[in-house]
Design a protein that fits this description.
CATH superfamily: STAS domain
CATH topology: Transcription Regulator spoIIAA
Strand content: 15-25%
Order of helices and strands: EEHEHEHEH
Number of helices: 4
Structural class: alpha/beta
Oligomer: single chain
Distance between the termini: 33 Å
Number of strands: 5
CATH class: Alpha Beta
Helix content: 25-40%
Length: about 110
């Protein structure tokens, strides 16, 4: 299964997730696909979460892992287009203090300029 699409745009990598929620079994495949992105020399990422219905603990762990690995090489990740439910989880877990979050993909892209 493909969990996201990727677009390269002016030095940015835009990752658009294409699932509502992942299971434990699917998390490993998602993590592998994200690991493949980490093997590139790209350091600026926008994670578009428009299709992600609920930000589960599995998605939190996966996103934090990606951000930590990216941070080791001075990379940056920004999130955008989170659902209201996902934003509730982000705020509850205080991840809004960890990630820069934007209402639209356009705003997230522009924030890198």
């Amino acid at each position: 299964m493909i969990y996201f699409t990727v677009e390269r745009l002016e030095g940015l990598t835009i990752v658009r997730f294409s699932f509502k929620e992942i299971s434990i079994g699917q998390r490993e495949e998602l993590k592998k696909q994200l690991d493949d992105l980490l093997r590139t020399d790209h350091n600026k990422y926008v994670f578009n979460m428009k299709e992600v219905g609920y930000f589960t603990s599995l998605m939190i762990a996966t996103t934090l892992f990606f951000a930590r690995e990216l941070g080791k090489r001075d990379g940056e990740i920004k999130l955008c287009e989170l659902s209201d439910d996902a934003m509730d989880v982000i705020r509850l877990t205080r991840l809004d203090k960890v990630f820069k979050i934007y209402p639209t993909e356009k705003e997230a892209i522009e924030s890198f300029r």
